[in-house]
Amino acid sequence: MTLSCFDLGEQMLSVDEARQALATLIERPLDSERIPLAQAYGRRLAAAVQAPINVPQNTNAAMDGVALALPRQGVGAKQTHWPLAGEVLAGQYRSELVPAGHCVRITTGAPLPPGTDTVVMSEQLSEPSLDEQPAHVIIASPELLKHGQHVRQAGEDIARGDTALSAGVRIDAASLGLLAALGYAEVTVCRRPKVAIFSTGNEVTAPGEPLPKAGIYDANRFTLIGLLTEQGADVIDLGILPDDLDATKTALKQAAEQSDLVITSGGVSVGQADFTRDALEQLGRLAFWRVALRPGRPMACGWLGETRTPFVGLPGNPVAVMVTFLQFVTTLLDQLHGQSVSPPHRRYAIAGNRLKSRLKRTDFIRGVYHTDEQGQLHVRSTGAQGSGILTSMVAANCLIELADDQDGAQPGEVVSIQPLTGWL
Ligand code: AMP
Ligand code: MG
């Protein structure tokens, strides 16, 4: 049984335990809305989509040429002269039976008329004369014909009643095409999640302002805007909170009322100026976690206000923000879209250099992976790995994940990586 977010107390959690427990914060999925298909790119389906028709609708020609009424045995394979019984062009439908041993001229995509089941492409036909309308076509090597050749079967792409796309699937270019092929002009998707974000800290300064002597520019709000946009969320950017209890309370309360999820960065450790912690405790039901990962702790989670809006307090250090977002917040967003918790996308690569990590802790090291000519993945770390070194995230194309039972890795060892690929 999965423990709820609030049952965990002060125990040290593994990344997987934290991921599972965090999902219990979501009490109901987002509502759905119907939107035009052309606007659905990147949205997530609110329910599974069934095929209302066969695609293709009819058994049809895959080539321009003739469709033969090829008898099952005997003459068909020996017959070189095929009388023409008419023609069917794409967009036309012929319901009249083609007698065995006859053929019709046909173009790609046209439904095969009854009686026919095999197509011969134009290039393999010789016609008796170019100047008169031929009454038949000549197939030079009829013994090579295969029943059913160059024919697309009705429903071979997708059959009526089959599930075309599952609930929660993010609509990409191929899914847009499939939905269109099924005739859907509109699609029912989850409403975009509204996610309110704050940075916290007296030292944290908005880009564009003069940098105070002890200031630091606010990087986290912008990495969060990027990550949330990749996830298809609507971001409500609520700026920077000072280290002040009342201001923090007011802001969090307002955020909870207008969003589906509130995310802050910084201010959840037990340092002197960490007001978010107190404000949260007064506003809702909160849990503070120690998660055995690096970079990444501490974290807070819970519900804010009467709306019980889910809340996640990420650490303050910029790399820790990105790493914890990718490990935990993406899971919450999946839950909001009605999907169950699934493990992150992992691949395996050979370490190109020595990697440091500690037992009983999952270490996420920024890495660059590539594939060699044999198709083997290799990965190297990006150098300095401090949790404030954002250039390491810029250089990286993956996170190397050294699990809690690993005590570092040597060059040549196979390690798990999580590619950083945006949303696909
Ligand atoms: P805290 O958890 O508030 O103690 O913050 C941990 C570290 O992260 C401190 O060095 C902060 O200055 C830094 N930090 C907190 N918020 C931000 C931010 N929005 N952008 C960049 N660095 C930050
Ligand atoms: Mg702080």
Note down, in words, how this protein is organized:
By secondary structure, the chain is an alpha/beta fold. The chain folds into 4 domains: 171 residues, Molybdenum Cofactor Biosythetic Enzyme, Chain A (3-Layer(aba) Sandwich); 45 residues, Molybdopterin biosynthesis moea protein, domain 2, CATH 3.90.105.10; 93 residues, Beta Complex (Molybdopterin biosynthesis moeA protein, domain 3); 73 residues, Beta Barrel (Beta-clip). It is built from 7 helices and 27 strands. The strands form 7 sheets. Strands 1-19-21-22-18-14-17 form a 7-stranded mixed sheet, sandwiched between helices. Strand 21 and strand 22 form a beta hairpin. The protein is elongated, with a radius of gyration of 31 Å. The two termini are 31 Å apart. The structure holds adenosine monophosphate (AMP) and magnesium ion. The site of adenosine monophosphate (AMP) has 17 residues, from loops. The site of magnesium ion has 5 residues, from loops.
